[in-house]
Amino acid sequence: MKAPRTISIFGATGSIGASTLDLIGRNAGEYEVLALTGNSDPQALAQLAIEHRAQLAVVADEVHYDALKAALAGSGVEAAAGLQALLDAARMGADWTMAAIVGCAGLEPTLAAIECGKTVALANKESLVSAGDLMMDAVRSSGATLLPVDSEHNAIFQCLAGADLSEVNRIILTASGGPFRTKSREEMARVTPEEAVRHPNWSMGAKISIDSATMMNKGLELIEAGHLFPIGLDHIEILVHPQSVIHSMVEYRDCSTLAQLGSPDMRIPIAHTLAWPQRMASPCTPLDLATIGRLDFETPDEDRFPALRLARQAGEAGGAMPAILNAANEQAVAAFLDRRIGFLDIIAIVERCLSGYSGPRPATIGDVLDADRTARDAADRMIGPMMESVRA
Ligand code: NAD
Ligand code: MG
Questions:
Q1: Domains and CATH numbers, the chain
Q2: What is the best residue among 45, 101, 151, 222 to mutate for testing ligand 1's pocket, by most ligand atoms within 8 Å of CB?
Q3: Cα–Cα distance between 147 and 156 in angstroms, integer?
Q4: What is the pLDDT of residues 238-272, one digit of tens each?
Q5: Ligand 1 neighbours (beta carbon < 6 A)
């Protein structure tokens, strides 16, 4: 019998974490769980750690350490808390690590996992957006295998099937267009957080759901694709496809286009990264194209969704700009979810943070984190006065 493969999940209590653990739980004998991590729900984390017989559970926010320890008492699962504990967990060197913390908070743990030189399944796109050059350097120097979980990037990876990028004309990144695909700017000015998190096709965490509504998600994915598949951003196009059936496409230089299709269920790309280079059975619903009946496509509208233009500019500028874009967006999305600013303010804040920044090109992760902090502070200074106008 084969020895079980060791796995760790960063962001185990989230949406991607749940989909990953669903697959692991169905094939329990094949995996040995080393570490599971969460941020602010020690009870949920403890329950998952006990159910999946993890060696270690880490809660990022240290205020929850005592609650986690109490919830794990007598279970045999070790409890830990804080950033250092997250890094130590990443350095346990699992054969396969899921990087599914949301936001730039995942940067250091994801990088620590990459530095172990094993396989890292990457959902945490914000870390690659913020520190893509340094992260890809770490992949090369550690010999790690980085597998994209984001459905579009996973689709591109599958369509490329190891082909050389010199054979490729274009990468076509599909986008659902989000819940406000057909709304005017005037209508978007009045939407609530509840309306914005209601994605038409995918069930996801709150932050990425808002990013889908502003289409910043696609902007972040453009930059993500530029690092994973370095073909030049001018060779990566965005195509709106409201049904989310085609997850992305690769057009080769002979004009043959390959697409990857599937139901909108993140367990499909996660299963691909878990079994790679083989395949595993998944509990997902097979695609029924006759019932779906038609697939539609539209050109994205950068006037109604300026996040697309800003992200392309930040990606092309490189240096600290993608980190500034991401950090300002994270801060503004959190403020929108807290009802401190309006929906259109999110991207207005990102734009102002980008145009006001003139710092150096980051040479280290410390430099990236400095740029991230600078952008968050700048965004917070804009959010204060906007808050008063939302309340008025
Ligand atoms: P989520 O909000 O459901 O879960 C986020 C996880 O990160 C939770 O476990 C949470 O406890 C943890 N976390 C939050 N803040 C943290 C912090 N400061 N430090 C440490 N841990 C923290 O989010 P999600 O939808 O699962 O998304 C996770 C990542 O995967 C994001 O980067 C997202 O863009 C990406 N992604 C998600 C989907 C999806 O369908 N949900 C699809 C593609 C990519
Ligand atoms: Mg995606």
A1: 5-148 (3.40.50.720), 150-266+273-316 (no CATH), 319-392 (1.10.1740.10)
A2: 101
A3: 11
A4: 999 999 999 999 999 999 999 999 999 999 999 99
A5: 11-17, 38-40, 60, 100-102, 105, 123-126, 150, 202, 204-205, 207-208, 266
